[in-house]
Amino acid sequence: MIKICYNILKFMLLSPSGGWSPLMSDRYQWLEVDLGERTKITAVATQGRYGSSDWLTSYLLMFSDTGHNWRQYRQEDSIGSFPGNSNADSVVQYKLQQPAIARFFRLFPLDWNPNGRIGLRLETYGCPYTSDVVSFDGGSSGLVYWLTSGLRRTFRDVITLKFKALRNSGTLLQAKGQEGLGLNLELERGKLLLLLRQGRTSSTDPQRLVSLGSLLDDQHWHHVTVERRSSHLNLTVDKHTERKTKSTVADIAFPSFITSKRNFHGCLENLLYNGHNLIELAKNKDQQVHILGNVTFSCAEPVSVAVTFTGPESFLQLPRTLTSSSGGVSVGFQFRTWNKQGLLLTFDLPQQGGLNGSVCNHDTWERAYFQQCVLMDVCFPGAALNDGQWHSVELNSRRGRLTITVDKEERDSAQASPSFPVTVESHLFFGGCPAEDDSQKCRKPFNAFQGCMRLFTMDNQEMDLIKVQEKHVGNYSNLQIDMCGIIDRCSPSPCEHGGRCSQSWTVFHCNCSDSGYGGATCHSSVYRQSCEAYKHSGNTSGHFYIDVDGSGPIKPQLVYCNMTEENTWMVIQHNNTELTRLRPSPGVNQYSVHFDYSSEEEQLFAAISQSEHCKQELSYHCRKSQGSPLSWWVGGPGGGRVQTYWGGAQPGSQQCACGLQGDCVDLQHYCNCDADRMEWTEDSGLLTHKESLPVRSLVLGDIQRPGSEAAYRVGPLQCHGDRNFWNAAFFDKETSYLHFPTFHGELSADISFLFKTMASSGVFLENLGIKDFIRIELSSSTQVVFSFDVGNGPLEVRVESSVPLNDNRWHRVRAERNVKEASLQLDELPVATQEAPADGHFHLQLNSQLFIGGTASRQKGFRGCIRSLQLNGVTLDLEERAKITPGVQPGCPGHCSSYGSLCQNQGRCVERANGFHCDCGLSPYTGVFCQTEVSASFKSGTSVSYTFKEPYELSRNSSTLPSSIYSDMTLRGENVSLSFRTNQSPALLLYVSSYYREYLAILINKHDKLEVRYKLDSNRDAEVLRSKVRSLANGQLHTVTIRRLTESVSVEDFNLTSDGEFNAIKSLVLGRVHESDGLDADLARLASLGFTGCLSVVHFNTISPLKAALLHPDSSPVIIFGPLTRSNCGSAASANPYSAENTHHLSDQSGSVGSGQPLVNSIRTDSALIGGTRLFYLRIFFTGLNFTYSCFPPMQCWCVASYALLPTF
């Protein structure tokens, strides 16, 4: 080791005179430079040793004011190493991002040319540094600065200073104003707090405005700025700033005086108030500054040598130098760490095994273990010992009693009485054990300690660690001596959106629970951005949290998403949506009401802005209460603006809906309520101008006269459409692209979008820097790659899909990169991650334009559509940019290929310019996805009759044969389905009649079995299909599906001998049948009884008669008799809670089962003629029991379930 001292700033080792090369080339060497005085160092340059193979490839820099308590210089607060040389001749200069102010600096070699030795020529660059310093002893010392009497209050006040703390708590500054208002700048457990005091008594608890910084008691200089601009406060500690707005701050005459209060122990440097150097004024004995107690204008620091245990290989071995006359032992030290567990001290007992100690944290208990085998387990309740603060440990053994004390002034001691003397035989091991120790003199029952230690004492004598560093005594490995390298990775917190940060010595962790965000840093929202996005994920109406700006600063908000067949409405409620009536109140001329919404101001504004259309109902009911100009409402963003138009009118018109339509009750006025009539009237309508929404308050006047009355109703805010979700562009060439300003995502960046393509590769996005870059691309038809470089070399995250991605369907990509990891997700596949280097660059520095759909080189461009592109929560307007860019088209049609599967129950997907909707016209269901059953409760007198065609329509072509007349009403097959729930037996479920006295009837017979009757020939009796399934009238939900197909083979024992056509169907009846002509007596009696129970999702071919009756009674050919009430009785959720709902499926042809034996591999559906008669194929699916079977030709049943019970017909 060589120590070189220079008294000038710029010194030259870059010369042909050789350079520095230590005798030993290992990581325990360093080069120390003494600049003679504190200097501002801005750059260093290195070169290899002249004429040799000796040069450094990487090194560390450390700085100090005193030659002790070194501080490692870090780039970006993370990277500790500097790049060195690649040969002996070239010069590598590195400019420090933040200048270092110090008198001493050390250079530690990390790596060097493997074919040579450590060799170095060095030069530093900088400039002189001057300062004024004052020191306080932590007792009664301080400075008081009095403002000049009569000095006017300023709009802006600034206080700047540097401080070096020798104790972790104390008050640095007080600024007192009038009326007891004041600001305190206090150090508390190593954090800097800005407190607001209100009241003249000291007993008043201060309000914490800002907390910033951590580990500020490290005996290094820290820069502080406190700035007040009217009611705005900024606190800056080193490089980090927090802002706070407080109205009462503007009332502080900032300050009436400033004081560095008595209990701060440390030094202040360059204390400036609005440019006035208060320390210089104090040194010059200015009358405005008063000195209290023991104040010195220098900064004397005690020498305290700390050591840093950096990893599992670290240990410190100290010899036992003294022996107490009592044969006992006394050991003391201090430690600080973030880890929950680690070995602190272990030593060997004479012929008794070992004694060792560790520290850990479990919930609210701190445990110090000192054991011979299991000797002691001592718990210390209180604050955690892994909080990064210094904690003291004392171990004393005297006269057979062992005492362990942790934080002597704050905690209790623990004692034990071992059966043997506790003494140190030879050595003490701190933090860990040597890897090569086979003597068992160092026992390590716990993980190695990672953290800092200092103030080692043995029998009250302090150990000299500098001698250990110089290899004169003891031993060590992987230690940083004369410095504490602890880093607070949670200050400032990398966890966003309120995530809670915790840490160990090497990593941090963000707890994102209850924040609404996820990921390694709680950056990404776990919610969708709109109701529209929830719909396209397959959700139906309900309450949802939406996050309009994704990872941006706006919090998620709870809204109701009303998803209809036409639009998806976002509904935001306020505190009063009911019709509210007002009566005259004596002395009250106006009534004012304010509406509080469930969403905050910024949430409302963002939700309205991104919606395509918004509306809000405003109703004003009046009786002898004049409206304009005595009444108005306030609406719009922020505090809103006074609006004098009413629902249904346009902004600025000063009218109501009736005024625009010309139908007001008094044509001399533009609003009904302006007529001042004795009878009740109203002005109601929808407000649709987004810039005027939401309605924030309502003022109603003219309610004080006798007989005056008014009522109002302001509905919830409703919006539909998501302009961001459907914002898309189509790239039709590989050379086409869109460009946007540079993307700024230095510390955290998330990018999300949807794409669809038929190409197998292409770049979605690219942004370049000098060396850094970020890119997302489709590398193959099944793989998406997220690649980037922040200065540590290129990294990639890949996701492989099992299905092709160039299928012209929408696929979702989400990439995120933060200081901890990078992640990539494709559709619903598992997230792929790539951890960031533990000690590397983490600032992403880009400077080129952001390219979308291509690259700067115009190669590997993307062909297809990109939609809903968001970067850090901000949506890029692809459509607007595409309008002015050749080769790119705004918008992208074709969504049913991706979302069509959401349409259920025969719903048909219909394309829209922005999205799709499900057409439920051919489905018996309704709802946004045709998923909601349409059900009704029937009474015995209820009848729903659907008429297919009136008789006069049948005679329009009377010259032709009847078969052609009825061709569009002559059925060669039926597809019938319905669900029912009833306790009635017998009961008619459905009846279809014909003008030829033919019919189809589905019923429950008196034996509680399903029965299907077909009469397809008026000259023959009805043919009956009976099920063996029992107990259908049990109040449970059952579903029946019947399919009849002509020209198919019949089943033995059940032949429909008709020609297979259902001719000239007339009507379909649910419930009571009022026209029973042509029915046999038994069916006519049953038809007259009606049906009591529930019918649901009734479907006959393309007709949904129950849906038509309930939803479209005025436009459908339906006739309703008796009570018909829509209900959810057809929903499985409404089933009898005391009996489980069963599901079974029946499948059979038109006939009864033959032998009932399974027939394997003989499934046939081909048609045939038997005896010259055309037969048909009938299949029935029946749900209600837990079995499934199918019957197929040739006239046997194949059981496809594991049940022995087979139905017969």
UniProtKB/TrEMBL annotation:
Cellular location(s): Membrane
Principal cellular location given in the protein's record: membrane
Record key words, sorted: Disulfide bond, EGF-like domain, Membrane, Repeat, Signal, Transmembrane, Transmembrane helix
Span of domain EGF-like: 486-523, 893-931
All residue ranges annotated as the F5/8 type C domain in the record: 1-127
Domain Laminin G: 133-299, 305-484, 727-892, 936-1129
Pfam families reported for this sequence: EGF (PF00008), F5_F8_type_C (PF00754), Laminin_G_2 (PF02210)
Record-linked SUPFAM superfamilies: Concanavalin A-like lectins/glucanases, EGF/Laminin, Fibrinogen C-terminal domain-like, Galactose-binding domain-like
InterPro entries found in the cross-reference section: ConA-like_dom_sf, EGF, FA58C, Fibrinogen-like_C, Fibrinogen_a/b/g_C_dom, Galactose-bd-like_sf, Laminin_G, Neurexin-related_CASP
Domain Fibrinogen C-terminal: 522-574
Top-rank taxon, per record: Eukaryota
Membrane-protein topology: Single-pass type I membrane protein
Family of this protein: Belongs to the neurexin family.
Cross-referenced PANTHER family: CONTACTIN-ASSOCIATED PROTEIN-LIKE 4, PIKACHURIN-LIKE PROTEIN
Protein name: Contactin associated protein like 3
